[in-house]
Amino acid sequence: MIDVETCGKETLREISIRGIAGLAVAAGLVAAGPLAAQADSRPSVPDSAETAVRADLMGGPPASTHGFFPLSEVKPGLEATAWTVFEGTRPEPMRVKILGVLHGGRGPRHDMILAQLEGAKPEYTGVVAGMSGSPVYVGDRLLGSLSYRIGQFSKDPIAGITPIEQMLEVRDLPAGDLPAGQADFATPAEAAAAAAPLGSETNLQAMETPLVMSGFRPEAVRLWQERMKGTGLDMVAAGGMGAAGSGQAGSDQAGSPLSDAPVKIAPGTIEPGSAVSAELVRGDLEIAATCTVTYVDPKQLLACGHPILQAGPVSLPMTETDVVATLASPLNSFKIVNTGAVIGAFTEDRDSAIKGVLGATARMIPVHAVIHEGAKTRTLNVEILDVPALTGQALLVSLYNTLLETNESTAETSYHITGTIAMDGSGGAPQIAPIDTWASGGDTQPAQIMAALEVAQEFNNFYTNGTRVGAVRRVDLDVEEIPRRVSVELESARIVSSNIVHAGDEVTIEATLRPYQQAGRNVRIAVRMPDRLQPGPVRLLVSDATTLDRTLEQPKLTPKQATLEAEVAAARAQHAADRIYVSLLAPETQADLNGRTLVSLPISMANALETLRDGQEATLHGETAVLAADAPAGGVLSGYQVLTVQIEPGGGVN
Known about the structure:
Thrombin, subunit H; 6-stranded antiparallel beta barrel; about 650 residues; 6-stranded antiparallel β-barrel
């Protein structure tokens, strides 16, 4: 029996013609002439529909060992067969008619084969997001992979095929010896340009790589789409995570990350046409990109036929994928999937394909967070990818989603987030960078997004530092949820003792602090004048932490990126945002060197640092800011005021 869906309309027409002609000849009504000739005028290449049926009866698509069909032999009218999964895990055949070769269709010296999909399913669904990588065979020989489509509203299922010769270049790349994320990489803007459509809606563009975002709230999904717009990773399809990731921790406080778990491969589960996924985030949450396998050998596979981000060397968990359903849509059809067991790791993300190594273990960055909501505590345990163009975004959206998952938060809720980032420094020495940030409720944006943005920004300061040569080992966060606004304003400051003193005397300063929509309260701070002060006016800076840090770390005339060690040292020197500070602005030399502030320098040391100043390694200033005293502010303080005292020789005046 002929499968109508498999054969398609054209095959049925040919069968009808041959059948009618055969009956006519047998009955002696016509000679074996034009009609019979028309029935027997079959292409020199074996009929792809019949090949598909035979292959289907044999259990699946041809093995990759059967050889490759060269691009030089591709001609218009050539019949071929593509394999992809429409439902479940078993690839199904569909007929493909080759329309021609677009020379330079994928860029200079990168040709593309143009084809039309035929058969009931592809004609109904069109070209499906997630179908990219579907292998195309001429007979038993692999021609390439379906990877490109035309616009979004095309009536005909026209697809572009990446030739297998170009994909094999990715297979044959030498294995890199650099840790994931340490090779040359594209910036987010460059990555977006690399993955963006080749032209307008009427031109060929890479099939979208639909993402499964399991466990994410709609607000977090929208944030991801906004941040990923134009990269090819902004399409989010329905789906779910595999049993291995659902509800399990990416790592615990003292435990091992998921990436340390052994990788198991079930023999024969992956074949050309199978769906596979690359996990960008896994654990309590999951973000996975899905496409189709083109080529498989005992050690590795090639998929997609186009890049995800063209990031080059990567390290991403590679999983089996079960297609629950294929959703047909005039705008954009896509596959609804569940990710499955990890079967290896994707190691290359290149222009013509992504490469996965079977049985390999991906290295990711564990993220552990503890969220305190009054007496209740909950956790976030995930692992995120180590790819510079995406890692910060993955951390941002994961933390934002976690802060949304509560019934306790309101518009007034604030957050205080502390933690550490563990990294390998130069020479393998560990570097532990601190995180300490606040987000007050009631600001122009919700506190959840502000808190997540602040943490992601602090993380990126270290992660994207050009001098970092080691890996980021883990991120640990402690989140305190505060059921009120925490903003406090410095309303005024004044000297309540005499402002005429001598060196060694104590000065009392009173500051009026006003929490949001509350009565102001006064805070008194005693400050002792150093014995070394010379007669004359001395200024006192009463301020928040941001103003003090900005005063201690003066900007350089010609900015130069600090080393990772200097960035860590500067982060450790940052002052807490929920305190009020009184600093002495003395007429003495101050230097900034490798993230450290040196105050009240003698002339001899200042002269010694002058050569480093010329090399932009140090900055010198004629006024020193010396922290003299501080006190709790009861919230995140903002504002500053400068007071003046008069130092007189011989003694003070009461």
